[in-house]
Amino acid sequence: MRSEHFPRPGETISGSDFQQIPGGKGANQAVAAARWGGHVKMVGRVGEDAFARSLREGLRDAGVDVEAVESTSGSSGAAVISVDSQGENAITVVPGANGRLTAEDVERCAGAIAAADALLVQLETPVEAVVRAVELAKSHGVLTVLDPAPAPTSPLPRELMSVDILTPNQTEAAALCGVSAADPLAAAGVTERLRALGARRVALKMGRHGAYFDDGDLSFYSPAYDVDVVDTTAAGDAFSAALAVGFASQLGSVPSIRLACAAGSLAASHRGAQPAMPCREDAQRLCQEQEVVWIDEPTVGMLGDIRVGVGSVVRETEYEVEGRAMRGPACFIAPETGGDQLVGSGSRFALDADQWRVAVVEPPRDGRPGSATFQRVRSSQPVKSR
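RE: above sequence
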């Protein structure tokens, strides 16, 4: 349901829209992975109620194998999702049949898990069942991906923290390691803590800020795409599913993260959950329209006629963005014609027919060189400030 703002305790407000849409994190991710080109089999439970048939049909219509989705007495899992005028959401989940998925249910699907390229799990089902699925996958060398949502209220078992890829959002990351990342410059400290807890790779979802990836050897920030945000409900599910398919396809870290960010952005530009899941072709098109370039010190990169050097010139300084005085890390952009133009995170500059946005500038830290991330914004697209 939609409203201008979320109600405060004791407050009654009027809403503007109400819809019943098939959802659930596992189901959303299954649909997203199928639309991404994956051959998907879902393990789960639905109740014996009016929702069960539509849930199964929605998965089947998306190309998901539902043979292992069993029926159980009682209600199906459900969620009440409120969306405000900014597209942000607040979700209350009632597990229903999802809460009765057992390790024995998972064991019956051991053959399918062993034959998979990737296992994608989340926490809307009992932890014991999730742990058994991860154990089976690891025993057969299957890539394991955990989206730790809903945010855990107690420490997760080591088996879950040591997955191949952990994909928390900022709230879930704080629940797992006790530290939050309000912006991209704080993300590195959070991902390092999560890796110290066992995760091999961490893809930290940061909403409108994009995502930060860290595998110990490679770490980078990937900005979100410039879209009209309508509903962020399923953005994280689209991200995690696209990332799982990308890594399972041996696509590589950088293109997998970029496409996952595109998937999340596209999902946020539509209403609903499963109906909002994009296909790979749309995400690839968005990646091409809003290209991203990383420049790392001591490399000096060329963006058309503009040379970008980052490293020793990255420092805490004062600069001006769109007439506003700012202070923070910044980098120099030196046109070949001579002269330096100082820019900071969030500022934009024109180059040929395109516009570039400085998505983030990360200063040198703990012996690491500084870096900058630039995102192309096509001149045919409206330039929006976030």
